[in-house]
Amino acid sequence: MTLLQRIPIAGVFLAGVLILVLSLALRLSDLDGGLDLAATVLAAGYLGWLLLESRVALSRPGAEARSDDRGTGQAIIVARMANMACALLVPTAWERWYAWMVLPMLLFFAGIVLRRAAITTLGRFYSRRVRTLTDHEVVTTGPYRFIRHPAYTGVILAHLGMTLVLLNVASVVTLLLLVVPAFLWRIRVEERLLSQLSEYAEFARGRRRLLPYVW
Question: Which of 11, 85, 89, 202 has its CA 20 to 30 A from that of 169?
Fold first, then answer.
């Protein structure tokens, strides 16, 4: 077991919830302008997102699952919580609210909706760990008609939206050097395992990984 795999996901998850609660308490105690309101909305949205996914995020793979995660789950949760904390707790570079910030706010929530749609479409085949079941099937409906990993696209879009609204050096660095690389690594590991499914090659041939027509 690697050092990364020893990181307790439940502990990082709980730390993220506490950061969000702290951020909400600080913002609500002294709302001062549009940026504070936007940060409050983002913190509340992210907290609801975490709680919505808590059951799956903290679950363990069943005995029927064949797992080869390699610590990517830990890398992703650490990267996400680091980016979220930097965006919400480090002062933003923006001096005030701008009308264009509505777009990245919408991007944040659109990313969450896309992820939820992908998870719902996968049903019991979804897991926060890289694994296949003994009766695993390749899902080609819903957002999987267009890209291979819409759940990961959703997370990246949500974090991009949050980072743009609450821009600072730390949030940009954690997005580009932690969040994006963690998901790229996850995709490589996951596709190595999924390639053992006979129908996956055909599924992958007609779809990009994260963005249609791009990659």
Answer: 11
Matching residue, tokens 């996968």: 122
Q: Kind and range of the H or E element at 133? A: strand 131-133
pTM over 0.85: yes
Give the tokens for residue 102.
């509505």
Does 67 have pLDDT greater than 60? no
Instruction: Using the CB atoms, write b or e for 56-89: b if 16+ within 10 Å.
Output: ebeeeeeeeeeeebbbbbbbbbbbbbbbbbbbbb
60 vs 167: CA distance, rounded Å: 35
Domains of the chain, by residue range, sit at 4-205
Average pLDDT rounded to a whole number, residues 63-87: 81
- Options 1.10.10.10, 3.40.50.720, 3.90.1530.10, 1.20.120.1630; CATH for 4-205 is 1.20.120.1630
